[in-house]
Design a protein that fits this description.
Blueprint: E1 7-8, E2 11-19, H1 21-24, H2 32-41, H3 43-46, E3 47-48, E4 51-58, H4 62-74, H5 79-85, H6 90-93, E5 94-99, H7 107-111, E6 117-124, E7 127-137, E8 140-141, H8 144-176, H9 181-187, E9 191-197, H10 209-217, E10 227-228, E11 234-243, E12 246-247, H11 250-282
Antiparallel strand pairs: 1-12, 2-9, 2-11, 3-8, 4-5, 4-7, 6-7, 10-11
Helix pairs in contact: 2-8
């Protein structure tokens, strides 16, 4: 009686051939010199100097800066008070995390603090300043040996993408010459697979947006063609069969049927109780005396 509530969606059964960088990355040869050269190019990422989380408050004169620092040290004002008195907010003076070289001549004095604190007045290119160190960030060094695997994976993936890109023309020619997807799996590095696809499916290769779009509009009359994926991979697909929407077999749907029946039955019984209560209220029964189950 409610068969429309238990319909299975249209299913498209596909055969596909695909090639992703991950499938051939292990075959890409990367020499040690290339890895070390990339490591050197990334030196700033792998060898990060000691840094400070820092705020800098600029003054017109060294005397003003010294007076402000004395007030803070004596406890008659806070650093925040001094910042506010200048018409500024803490966000206005926040430098973020900086290295010693970022601070020029003030760097040595600021980095002499091994923990949070104030230092100044120090001369800067903007004028005398008080610096507040909020945190010390230790230097971080990553030796080549520790970075090697990541560098190798990156270069191998790049090489795999280039190799796949170079094969697109050859695979297009094979398909134009009448090769099947099974032939591609034999004559190229592409791998064959099958999937039952429904709208909204994101399992396996269907997780790629390009595959989902191609699957949605594919017909059994289409010839396979090479389509590129956003990770540098490629695929071609063939629609083998379309299974129209159909009722789910009762044995498979029985749990959902029971849940639907219970929901419907509860609604019916609640409505019946409500109607009975309404009838009592219409007969001037006080609401406080109603028996509610």
């Amino acid at each position: 009686e409610n068969i429309d509530d238990f319909m299975l969606p249209e299913v498209k059964k596909f055969t596909y051939a695909w090639l992703s960088p991950d499938l051939i990355a292990d075959e890409v040869q990367i020499d040690e010199d290339t890895l070390r050269a990339l490591y050197e190019d990334r030196a700033s990422e792998y060898n990060i100097p000691e840094r400070r989380l820092l705020e800098r408050l600029i003054f017109a004169t060294s005397d003003e800066a010294a007076t402000a620092l004395a007030d803070i040290t004596a406890g008659t004002a806070t650093f925040g008070d001094v910042v506010a008195a200048r018409g500024l907010a803490l966000g206005d003076i926040d430098l973020g995390d900086v290295s010693r070289s970022d601070l020029g001549d003030a760097g040595d004095a600021v980095f002499a603090l091994d923990g949070p604190g104030l230092v100044g007045p120090l001369e800067t290119n903007l004028g005398p300043a008080i610096f507040r160190v909020n945190a010390v960030l230790s230097a971080r060094e990553t030796p080549f040996e520790d970075a090697r695997d990541d560098l190798h994976a990156e270069l191998a993936a790049d090489g795999a993408r280039r190799e796949i890109d170079d094969q697109i023309g050859e695979i297009d020619d094979l398909l134009a010459g009448g090769a099947t997807l099974e032939d591609l799996a034999l004559e190229t590095k592409m791998q064959i697979g099958q999937t039952n696809w429904t709208l909204g499916n994101t399992d396996g290769i269907a997780a790629y947006e390009a595959f989902g779009q191609a699957a949605q509009f594919a017909t059994e009359q289409d010839f396979p063609e090479v389509i590129e994926l956003d990770d540098g991979g490629i695929f071609a697909l063939r629609l083998d069969e379309t299974v129209a929407p159909r009722a789910e077999p009762f044995d498979a749907a029985v749990v959902k049927v029971i849940q639907a029946w219970e929901t419907s039955e509860i609604a019916k019984r609640l409505n019946a109780q409500a109607e009975a209560l309404i009838a009592q209220l219409e007969n001037d029964v006080r609401i406080g005396s109603l028996g509610m189950a």
